[in-house]
Design brief:
Elements (H helix, E strand, L loop, with lengths): L16 H4 L2 H13 L4 H12 L6 H9 L3 H19 L2 E11 L25 H14 L3 E6 L8 H13 L1 E2 L2 E2 L2 E5 L5 H9 L5 E2 L7 H7 L8 H5 L1 H7 L5 E4 L7 H19 L5 E3 L20 H14 L4 E4 L5 H10 L3 E3 L31 H10 L3 E3 L3 H4 L4 H10 L3 H18 L3 H17 L3 H15 L8
Parallel strand pairs: 1-2, 1-10, 1-11, 2-5, 6-7, 7-8, 8-9, 9-10
Antiparallel strand pairs: 3-4
Helix pairs in contact: 2-4, 2-12, 3-5, 4-12, 4-13, 5-13, 6-7, 13-14, 15-19, 18-19, 18-20
């Protein structure tokens, strides 16, 4: 049967956005998925392929999103849980966002930072402000940050971002240290990506928002972000600039989830086809309320059941890629999706500029980018994860040991990364328990570490890790494998 795919120009290895993200191919895939939603033989073949951890094409993933056979759907969710455990075990990496500035020249209609918003106070952190924020984050126990700014070449030039990164890495309080700075800033030039690489960033993160170009143009009526191709091709320039760990995502709810999930997976396929390594992480934010933003005005908002399915399908499609969820989701939703594929979460987050150093943590919420639904402290989130059988990990070892890009992916795909990640998770958790945890959380954490240590199959590794754990108890810090 001929489909519209035969009539579109689609090439995942092309450097051009409208060819590697082909509108015709996306629409053909969505149409194809609707036609085959009850094709049991096809869906079983797709699930058999996924079970071998070979990943799925964007079209195969689209078919799974449409499947309405209860037994096959249950198999899909069960398989997502198993693949998550196979590659990431029970580890959950912890991080926090740090907002440097809400100055922005873009007109994005879904973001309160948009240039026309007169209700939000505009603020930019000084380097001394940043030091105070970092100390507050260190005193919570964080080791990994994702820095965020609005796009404003006057107020937030690349030099400001680079200086801020230097400030973050150089700030130490008690036993605190930020060991990895991920960067979520606007699309920029290859030269600027080289500067970010030289500054020692971890992952460069940029959300596409929506892959539907016609919708994208309406949602971004003004500013440099309105250039669809410039924005969509940003990860290519980052890779060309030497950044081999990149993180992609969409803001689910801006367009239909069918369109954007397909586009998201096509973007992952493009990075693999052109650079030999897919995205290090995929984020799955949903549209939510904020200053001057009414989420109810976006008719494509994604309900919880579909959201869970999206995460399960992504886990099957890109089994080796980390998945991130933020505090814009509730505790109940975060609990569900942790099992289905999520490997990184934020805790104790503030989405306002200067929100951490404030004594009450709330006086800067008038600069928040979005409303937080999970308002628990980091210690409460850590304790909750321990109760649910997870190991909260503050590990940054792979980035610091050069295990990035294709080197990281090759270790993940062969399963060898677990011999590093599990011990590093235990050791960084022990640091947290000793330096920052409440008595209750410390007790839970020590019990989990003892259990995990006893279960380690490699006797030599067990003895090595046990020795490092003892040294952490005596005050030594920053062991890593």
């Amino acid at each position: 049967m001929e489909t519209t795919t035969d009539k579109v120009h689609y090439d995942p290895s092309s450097p051009y956005a409208e060819i590697f993200i082909s509108d015709g191919e996306i629409r053909a895939s969505v149409e194809y998925a609707a036609l085959h939603r009850n094709d049991r033989q096809m869906i079983e073949r797709i699930l058999d392929k996924a079970e071998k951890c070979r990943g799925l094409t964007h079209r195969e993933a689209a078919v799974l999103m449409e499947c309405d056979e209860p037994d096959l759907t249950e198999r899909m969710f069960s398989m997502a849980r198993e693949i998550k455990r196979r590659f990431y075990g029970n580890r959950i990496v912890m991080f926090a966002p740090l907002y440097l500035s809400d100055w922005c020249v873009n007109g994005c209609v879904y973001c309160p930072y948009h240039v026309q918003n007169r209700l939000i106070p505009r603020r930019k952190l000084t380097q001394e402000d940043i030091r105070r924020e970092v100390i507050a984050l260190q005193d919570m126990g964080h080791k990994r940050l994702a820095i965020e700014t609005g796009e404003d070449p006057v107020n937030n030039p690349i030099e400001y971002v680079l200086e801020s990164i230097r400030t973050i890495y150089s700030t130490h309080h008690r036993n605190g240290a930020i060991r990895r700075v991920n960067v979520n800033i606007a699309a920029t030039t290859v030269e600027n990506y080289r500067k970010l690489k030289s500054a020692g960033i971890g992952t460069y993160i940029l959300f596409q928002e929506t892959y539907n170009k016609s919708a994208y143009v309406k949602l971004h009526p003004s500013g440099p972000k309105s250039d669809y191709a410039w924005h969509t091709e940003a990860m290519d320039r980052a890779m060309e600039g030497g950044i081999d760990d990149v993180g992609i995502g969409v803001l689910f709810g801006l367009d239909t989830y069918r369109y954007d999930l397909t586009g998201l997976l096509m973007h992952a396929e493009h990075l693999e086809a052109r650079f030999g390594v897919g995205p290090h992480t995929i984020s799955v934010p949903r549209i939510c309320p904020a200053s001057d933003i009414d989420a109810g005005k976006f008719p494509n908002a994604v309900p919880d059941d579909i959201f869970c399915r999206i995460i399960a399908v992504i886990r099957l499609a890109v089994p080796y890629t980390g998945m991130i969820i933020s505090t814009r989701e509730s505790e109940a939703v975060r609990e569900k999706v942790l099992e289905l594929g999520i490997s990184q979460i934020s805790g104790g987050s503030r989405t306002s500029v200067g929100g951490y150093a404030d004594a009450d943590g709330g006086s800067r919420e008038d600069t928040a980018q979005f409303d937080i639904r999970d308002r628990r402290t980091l210690d409460e989130v850590v304790g909750w994860l321990l109760d649910k059988g997870h190991i909260p990990s503050f590990c940054t070892a792979c980035y610091r040991e050069g295990r990035t890009g294709d080197r990281f992916m090759s270790l993940v795909k062969t399963g060898k990364i677990a011999s590093c990640c599990q011990p590093n998770a235990m050791m960084t958790l022990m640091e947290y328990l000793e330096d920052y945890a409440s008595a209750k959380t410390r007790e839970k954490g020590l019990a989990v570490i003892r259990k995990e240590l006893e279960a380690m199959p490699d006797g030599k590794l067990r003895l090595l890790v046990a020795g490092h754990l003892e040294k952490i108890l005596s005050g030594v810090r920053d062991f890593r494998l």
